[in-house]
Predict the structure.
Amino acid sequence: MEQAQHPDSNPLPPNTNKTRLLAMAGVAATVVLVAFDSTIVANMLPRAAQALGGMSLYAWAGTGYLLSMAASILVFGRIGDLYGRRELMLLSVAIVAFGSLMCGFAGSMPQLIAWRTFQGIGGGMMIATAFAAPADLFPDVRERVQWMALVSVTFAIASGIGPVLGGAITQELGWRAAFFVTPTAGAFALFMLFRFFPRIASPTPRDARHIDWPGAALLVVAIASPLAALELGLSSGAHRKPVLAALLTLAGLVAALLFLWHTKRAASPIFPPRVLGTRDARLLNLSAILVGAIMFILIFYSPLMLQDTLGLRPGKAGLLMTPLVVGIPVGSLVNGRLFPLQKQPQRLLTFGFSALLAGCLMILIIGNDSGALWILLSFSMAGFGLGFILPNLTLFMQMLSEPRDIGVSSGLVQTTRAIGSALGTAAIGIVIARSSVASGIQAGLIACGAMSIICMLLSSRIQMRNTPR
């Protein structure tokens, strides 16, 4: 059903492939920043922590970024719905680029952690807007899904280049120089967005554009506190603080209850309950939690399995896992081609979970007698399945949402996926700590298979119709 445009909205620029391609190129350029900011930093962070004498705080450089990012996605998704996404995307690029620049000048580990946390705010803003922006440019979801594949391909390529680029720069010029890659890429993203992405006004009337700051604060605490508690509770040595972890968990629970109470009474809540008002929306986000857990268990623990079980060197293990990342854009491209032909596109989601299940089972039976071809096929199958799943989770939520809620609904999928990734990796970490690496990884892969089956059943209950919005 076509949605009537609010009189306050600005029309889109001339509807040509060239203008939309250039606008999407700006969106893709911001996705490159997200990929670079994680892969380059992950590769050289150990050397940075060592140089700054802060190896004991090493984990918090990554945790601070993830916490601030996960806690801010929904807030900025809502602000983008109310006031438009163009300015938020420009600001997000500036924050990430400036934060990376300041990380390069950090004189101590606490300073590095502080600037990485600051960057995470920009990262959350970037994710909240970049995944919702295609909906502004392509109201017809059958056309949008093909252009969204561009974002997946760009992210995969940048994720593959990032570690190599970061490693080479760190080795030749030092770890500080590696932090200057993101600002350089950010300058290009800023130009592309400023020059080509249109200023599209919100469909929400001006007199209804109010930011629910109390709700935003409660939402941030409700999301960030439990995730911080996970890190504190699972840390080792002096950084393991179970009492503080328990207090943070309690604070998160209280904030969540207060948030629900506040949302029912707020005139314009930061998270409108109508976004989760349908059964299909709830099933999609439950699937997103499980997908986040599956994906990050595979990403974090498969290298450990290959090195610990098979005794492979890190370089070869990373090479054998490459199809997991490469398979995602390949699956996304195929999904984009098939989507317009489907009257019931949820079948593509079910197929993606079936392929993911097959990949998880193939990885589970990898042993000392497994050849390189079997390992490559196993990770290829899992990545190919994820290529059908990840874009469709976001796209289906956009299809179920009103135009005024596109940003917050897209952000909700990213947030639930981030929460699932934290819970999944933490759970397997506990199993490994209490048993052994081999037992923990095996339990994790069995859990991945079980969660894939659950997601297949959930997706089979989702009812979607491939009609333009």
About this structure: The radius of gyration is 21 Å. Residues 1-14 have pLDDT under 50 and may be disordered.
